[in-house]
Amino acid sequence: MSMETTAWNTMYATMNAQTGHRRIDPALLRRIARFAARLRRRLAGFAVVSVVVAGLTVATPLLAGRVVDAITRSAPSSTVVILASIIAGVAFAEAGFGLVQRWLSSTIGERLIFDLRTAVYDHVQTMPVAFFSRTRTGALVSRLNNDVIGAQRAFSDAFSGVISNTVTLLLALVAMVSLSWQITLATLLLLPVFLVPARRFGARIADLQRIRAAHDAAMGDRMTERFSAPGATLIKLFGGADRESTEFADRAGRVRDVGVRSAMVQEIFYLALMVVSALALALVYGVGGVLALNGQIQTGTVVSLAMLLTRLYAPLTALANTRVEAMSAMVSFERVFEVLDLAPLIEDRDDARRVPDGPIGVEFDGVAFAYPSPAQISLASLEDVAVLDPRPGGQVLHDVSFTIAPGQTVALVGTSGAGKSTIAGLIPRLFDVDEGSVRIGGVDVRDLAASSLHSAVGMVTQDGHLFHDTVRANLTLANRDATDDEVWDALRRARLDGVVAALREGLDTIVGERGYRFSGGERQRLTIARVLLAKPRVVILDEATAHLDTTSEAQVQLALSEALAGRTAIVIAHRLATVRDADAILVVEDGRVVESGSHLELVDAGGRYAELYSA
After folding, report:
1. CATH 3.40.50.300, domain 362-379+393-614, yes or no
2. Cα–Cα dist 279/194, whole Å
3. Predicted pLDDT at 260
4. Cα distance between residue 3 and residue 186, in whole Å
5. In the CATH scheme, what is the homologous superfamily, with its name and number, of domain 3-340?
6. Contact indicator for 425, 328 with CB cutoff of 8 Å
7. Which of 167, 303, 497, 526 has the fewest CB atoms within 10 Å, i.e. is most exposed?
8. What residues contact 441, with CB distance under 8 A and at least 6 apart?
């Protein structure tokens, strides 16, 4: 490793520091060790190979010195050839072991990334819907990307660096002292001069890097919002293209200015280290040359010392920055474990049951519910706030009781915010009740396995959300084994087969972000087709026809009649004309069921439903 490489490595390590003078938590180290225990064999193998590579690294300068001495003594040519052959062999061995070292390092690092990512991803899937409604998506994705990779550096950089650099340092120091303790002492006296630029300039570079990262993140967030289909439409509708361009140029200009300042500081830093490196080499050649001319040491010793100098300074500098690298990795581990430590509010019981076979009904028995506090379901760092509010949400439902017989259709009506969607969300167990119980097929949903419950309950929401994927992938989300014939049958029953058949790519058509290639009515019918493919026994329609024009609503209603046929159904609607034929209508106000009955019964009663209907 050259002195130039040493300088660049020093600068890179300092630039990538993410933390200051913090103490490493022993408990965190123990947790990391437990997490990495499955990799202990490869870690041990990596340590052994690193020791071998360090030994070979120090051997080359010593052999080079022997060659020079052999030449100056006019030794037999066979001696020089043998030494040169040994150097070549060492080079091949170092390259071979280096490849093994790199393979072990990459497999350890990538396995750690895989384990952390899958652990975080799987854990996040267990979080309640309220968690996602509060969390910044970008911050959460950052945990799966940036922080996981930062944690991986603890093994690929810090761990490997400590082992190889420590061994290399010790071997180089022993070799240099054995060759000339005087020159070794002189070169060590220059070490503080080498480290000062790394600390002073490195801190400045790290600050500039953080500033640039913040500007990059702000610019990236702006692009993400503006480049989405709704965002781009909004800008075009309000004619703000010129203003947007000016504001973006301002943000990009800040990134540019910081980049120039960072480049100049890096160059000054690099040149300072190069000057110190040159002084160290000059010292070795100057003092060593004088000693060699006086016959106190061999000429080859000077060459060996000069080559060993990089083997001494490089690991010393790297080890000086190891704590910074380790602390950066610790911060990343803390942020990853922070997500993993967030306990899910809803979990399967050990003895969870399956939903009973056959037609099933739904029963609410004295249900009371309040949304959990932010502190229970989220993290301050994911919401970009200092402290989460520990207070729970206000009571949403109060003593809600009703029964839906198998195959019956019941409508929930009432003013916005009355608690209708909350009632619907308790059936597939998006939340758990605080009091009372919700039963499906006579079994409390808390006693059912989530997979069985979700296969029995299907839901069509108001927004008709679709992923940026093919029509087929969106429709088979809940039934991956569905054949194309089954998909086309679901589309036909959803009154959408003609629309999809007219598309050039058919079922392989990409629907666009949030399904923006389709109209609102078409998106809703796609979600209905998805429910038809899932074949649930209970269907929940939460404002499925809201915001649709008359023609689209008529088509969706026809599709819904297919979806509800022979199934237990809960329909939430503001347009009361769409629920007149329901078997029963429940009027929900302020979290309570205040009226129930058929359409005609409730109109004749002249109560709240009659007011809503007449309005």
Report:
1. yes
2. 10
3. 85
4. 17
5. ABC transporter type 1, transmembrane domain (1.20.1560.10)
6. no
7. 497
8. 355, 356, 358, 360, 361, 456
